[in-house]
């Protein structure tokens, strides 16, 4: 029996404490100390994850600009983190201390209405501010719903400490709303971009708001120990707003628990790390499906067989998993893909039959949560077997993982909600590796055997230790890193080779144009014509490749061509002969230097210059035997190596060899080609029964051609933009999805569940 002194310390809901009194002040200090200590730990823990999150996003950024935004954000956070933390904690402390007085000052009396501390005022604001407000509103609403019980008790007990002021979720100084708004105010210390701030808000939700349970429980425990409302019942208001009576409190709690449990198959557990709108949509669709006249979800009649427990499900799945491991030797083929599709759809029935053999009686159904989990995993693997992003052989291999993944989803309900869940990352990584697989690019079977070994080990070794997914994910990543480094070297060689050929072709065209434009219209002797169109044109190509088209060497080479042509003009006057004699030493020097660079032997150069001396002596009017002159002017057997051939004989020939410049058409395929980025994977039909998968490696800045390589970095094909657009239009090429497998599967499942109930097959 309590003594009088003890009972006098108990404060009922109808009593009020003066916050300025000794006891009220002590209790307020207790709450402030608990909040300060807990929130400091949580906010420190959150900022420890910001660097990693921003670095991961920078690595996956779609372009350099986006990457720099994340790196700038990292630097800004490192510099301003202490100020943000101090501002956040100081604001919470002030609100706890000043709440009562500021509330009265704002309202004029305790019954007035004021803007709640944590409310979000939506008005005409900038897009960035609106985006920020929506993000904060979303996480406040989610956490207020999740923390209903503990938050209700804290509200009631703080009302007593604050002199009877009515406190609700929105006005609680340590509620999700007040904490979120305080953090928003503190975030003004950062000058980072909004995309960076939104990432930090998500981390605040994940690491601070998600851990408020312990804060509220400690506050409630301390206030109960101090005698503040020790007998308080956690009454939850009705949907319409009216509170339940004392006799209705327990059923309300049960209903809330059931509602929360109903959502846990998608990871909406007490961790607070709930998922995006997509997951919320899935939850709603599964709930709607259960209430529809078709499908599962019927209530069991009285006296029916007891629903299987999670342990029974895991045990039965382990038996089925062992059987699947034994059958893993089946070859990957299209026929087996069809067979596997049937197995995927029948797993629930097989599972119930296995539970029946283990317990002696077959249950007719499983619990709502487990049924939704089984159906969701089943739909995931049905999607895998229909996913054209994966080659058939890879579909068959990955589809064998249905049972291990169902076990994982039952053991850890967060699998579908968390993008970074190890099991989810492993399946996404396997699908990403498999996307680039083809028999041609994997002749040594290295990739096929690695994926098969991971599937085998999950089937054989996975019992209930979820760390196996993390280990296999790291192993696959290491394999991929080694393969990628090998491929990058080969890919670089292919790109350099292609770039070199294009530069050579471009140089040849430029050299040909320069020579042809100069000799056109001139009736040059065969010797002069042959030197310019063959030997000197090749020297121009070499000069362009080595020194460039803007170099002084290239300008000198063109000047020589002009002088060489001018030297063929008749020298009839004394001045003309004097000018020709002055040119000849320079012509000889230039020829010796230039021809020596294009594989001329010294003996060939001497023979050629000897013929030129004969020609120029005749030009200067010296006595030269007629036979020698005729041999020079008419000879087609020039002292030029056969390997040095003309680049082009005429302007018409040069024009005909130019690549066709197709007009850019405004077709969906042409627009798609224009948007392709290096790293995008495509599938090409390379023969009647052969398909090759290749990655866009490089787009030529000179010709605009698209170079594709396989997963080993070897060239598969290169296309002009219009050729690639035609291949896409004809179906001989197809762009593969870059979105992760899990995300695409969840989108597809939402689409399927959103269809009218009559169009969906009843659940087995």
Written overview of the protein:
- With 764 residues, this protein is mainly alpha-helical.
- The chain has helices at 4-8, 22-59, 64-107, 127-146, 148-161, 176-186, 194-207, 212-225, 249-263, 277-291, 310-326, 334-359, 368-386, 392-399, 402-411, 422-435, 446-461, 467-519, 526-547, 552-566, 574-596, 602-619, 626-634, 651-657, 668-675, 721-730, 741-754, and strands spanning 681-685, 691-699, 706-709, 715-719, 733-735.
- 63% of the residues lie in helices and 3% in strands.
- Strands 4-3-2-1-5 form a 5-stranded antiparallel β-sheet, with helices on both faces.
- The longest helix is centred in the middle third of the chain and has 53 residues, at 467-519.
SSE topology:
Layout (H helix, E strand, L loop, with lengths): L3 H5 L13 H38 L4 H44 L19 H20 L1 H14 L14 H11 L7 H14 L4 H14 L23 H15 L13 H15 L18 H17 L7 H26 L8 H19 L5 H8 L2 H10 L10 H14 L10 H16 L5 H53 L6 H22 L4 H15 L7 H23 L5 H18 L6 H9 L16 H7 L10 H8 L5 E5 L5 E9 L6 E4 L5 E5 L1 H10 L2 E3 L5 H14 L10
Antiparallel strand pairs: 1-2, 1-5, 2-3, 3-4
Helix pairs in contact: 2-3, 2-7, 2-8, 3-6, 4-6, 4-7, 5-8, 10-27, 11-12, 11-15, 12-13, 12-14, 13-14, 13-15, 13-27, 16-18, 17-18, 18-19, 18-20, 19-20, 20-21, 21-22, 22-23, 25-26
Short description:
This protein is mainly alpha-helical.
> How many E strands?
5
Strand order of the largest sheet: 4-3-2-1-5
Give the overall shape, derived from the CA principal axes: elongated
Mean model confidence by pLDDT: 79
Largest sheet: 5 strands, antiparallel
Poorly predicted runs: 1-8, 106-125, 235-264, 268-274, 293-304, 330-335
Residues in β-strands, percent: under 5%
Structural class by SSE content: mainly alpha
């Amino acid at each position: 029996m309590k003594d009088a002194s003890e009972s006098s310390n108990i404060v009922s809901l109808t009593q009020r404490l003066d916050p300025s009194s000794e006891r009220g002040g002590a209790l307020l200090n207790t709450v402030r100390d608990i909040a300060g200590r807990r929130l400091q730990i949580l906010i420190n823990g959150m900022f420890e994850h910001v660097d990693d999150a921003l670095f991961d996003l920078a690595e996956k950024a779609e372009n350099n600009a986006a990457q720099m935004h994340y790196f700038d954000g990292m630097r800004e956070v490192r510099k301003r983190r202490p100020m943000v933390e101090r501002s956040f904690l100081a604001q919470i402390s002030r609100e706890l201390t000043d709440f009562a007085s500021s509330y009265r000052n704002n309202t004029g009396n305790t019954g007035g209405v004021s803007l709640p501390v944590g409310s979000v005022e939506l008005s005409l604001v900038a897009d960035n501010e609106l985006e920020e407000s929506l993000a904060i509103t979303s996480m406040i609403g989610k956490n207020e719903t999740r923390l209903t019980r503990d938050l209700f008790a804290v509200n009631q007990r703080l009302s007593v400490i604050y002199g009877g002021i009515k406190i609700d979720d929105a006005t609680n100084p340590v509620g999700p709303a007040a904490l979120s708004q305080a953090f928003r105010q503190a975030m003004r210390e950062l000058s980072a971009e909004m995309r960076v701030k939104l990432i930090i808000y998500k981390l605040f939700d994940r690491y601070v708001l998600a851990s408020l349970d312990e804060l509220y429980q400690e506050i409630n425990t301390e206030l109960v120990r101090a005698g503040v409302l020790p007998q308080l019942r956690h009454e939850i208001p009705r949907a319409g707003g009216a509170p339940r009576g004392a006799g209705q409190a327990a059923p309300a709690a049960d209903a809330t628990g059931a509602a929360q449990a109903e959502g846990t198959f998608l990871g909406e557990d007490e961790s607070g790390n709930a998922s995006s709108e997509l997951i919320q949509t899935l939850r709603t669709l599964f709930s709607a499906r259960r209430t529809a006249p078709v499908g599962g979800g019927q209530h069991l009649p009285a006296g029916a067989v007891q629903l299987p427990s999670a342990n029974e499900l895991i045990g039965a799945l382990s038996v089925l998993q062992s059987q699947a491991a034994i059958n893993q030797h089946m070859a990957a083929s299209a026929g087996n893909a069809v067979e596997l599709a049937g197995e995927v759809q029948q797993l629930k029935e097989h599972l119930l039959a296995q539970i029946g053999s283990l317990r002696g009686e077959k249950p007719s159904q499983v619990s709502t949560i487990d049924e939704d989990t089984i159906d969701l995993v089943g739909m995931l693997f049905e999607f895998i077997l229909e996913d054209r992003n994966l080659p058939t052989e890879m579909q068959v291999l990955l589809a064998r993982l249905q049972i291990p993944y169902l076990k994982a989803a039952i053991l850890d309900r967060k699998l579908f909600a968390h993008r970074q869940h190890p099991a989810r990352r492993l399946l996404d990584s396997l699908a990403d590796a498999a996307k680039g697989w083809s028999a041609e690019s994997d002749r040594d079977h290295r990739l096929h055997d690695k994926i098969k070994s991971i599937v085998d080990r999950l089937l054989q070794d996975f019992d209930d230790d979820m760390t196996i997914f993390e280990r296999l994910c790291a192993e696959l990543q290491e394999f991929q890193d080694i393969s990628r480094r090998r491929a990058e070297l080969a890919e670089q060689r292919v790109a350099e080779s292609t770039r070199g050929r294009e530069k050579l072709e471009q140089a040849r065209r430029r050299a040909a144009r320069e020579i042809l434009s100069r000799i056109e219209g001139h009736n040059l002797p065969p010797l002069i014509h042959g030197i310019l169109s063959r030997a000197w044109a090749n020297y121009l190509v070499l000069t362009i490749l080595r020194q460039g088209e803007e170099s002084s060497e290239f300008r000198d080479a063109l000047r020589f061509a002009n002088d060489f042509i001018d030297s063929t003009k008749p020298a009839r006057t004394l001045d003309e002969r004097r000018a020709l004699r002055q040119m000849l030493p320079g012509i000889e020097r230039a020829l010796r230097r230039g021809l020596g660079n294009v594989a001329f032997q010294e003996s060939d150069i001497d023979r050629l210059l000897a013929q030129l001396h004969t020609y120029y002596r005749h030009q200067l009017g010296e006595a030269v035997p007629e036979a020698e002159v005729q041999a020079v002017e008419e000879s087609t057997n020039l002292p030029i190596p056969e390997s040095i051939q003309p680049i082009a004989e005429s302007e018409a020939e040069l024009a005909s060899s130019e690549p066709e410049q197709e007009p850019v058409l405004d077709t969906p395929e042409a627009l798609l080609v224009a948007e392709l980025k290096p790293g995008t994977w495509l599938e090409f039909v390379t023969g009647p029964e052969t398909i090759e998968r290749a990655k866009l490696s490089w787009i030529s800045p000179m010709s605009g051609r698209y170079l594709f390589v396989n997963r080993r970095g070897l060239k598969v094909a290169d296309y002009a933009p219009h050729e690639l657009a035609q291949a896409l239009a004809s179906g001989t090429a197809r762009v593969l999805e870059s979105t992760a497998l899990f995300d695409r599967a969840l989108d597809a499942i939402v689409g399927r569940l959103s269809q009218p109930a009559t169009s969906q097959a009843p659940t087995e």
